């Protein structure tokens, strides 16, 4: 299959170059994961490179791409779990949307705080 045909396929695994910890590296992810990663960094008000650095510091396997897929999945699982436990299904739509927005803001703050703590702990280990 040629390059142009591959570019038109949905969810093809694409390799992209990123700078992680001041080193250029390649990461291969499917389109859905790249889109999800971009959504996360917008919600977290950070950059893809910074987010990937945080994932890399906590890496549990030698494969960065696998760790990114797991991180994206876990991020959205946390959002889903929080929205389910918030009990939004029993409330009217407007109230439900407001509560979901509040829950999402709280989750965003918790995730940012978590990454801040993880980053500072890892920095102390490096120093």
From TrEMBL:
| Residue stretches making up the Ribbon-helix-helix domain | 14-76
Task: State the superkingdom.
Answer: Bacteria
Please identify the protein, giving its name as recorded.
Ribbon-helix-helix domain-containing protein
Species this chain originates from: Tardiphaga robiniae
Q: Where is the organism placed in the taxonomic lineage, from the top?
A: Bacteria, Pseudomonadati, Pseudomonadota, Alphaproteobacteria, Hyphomicrobiales
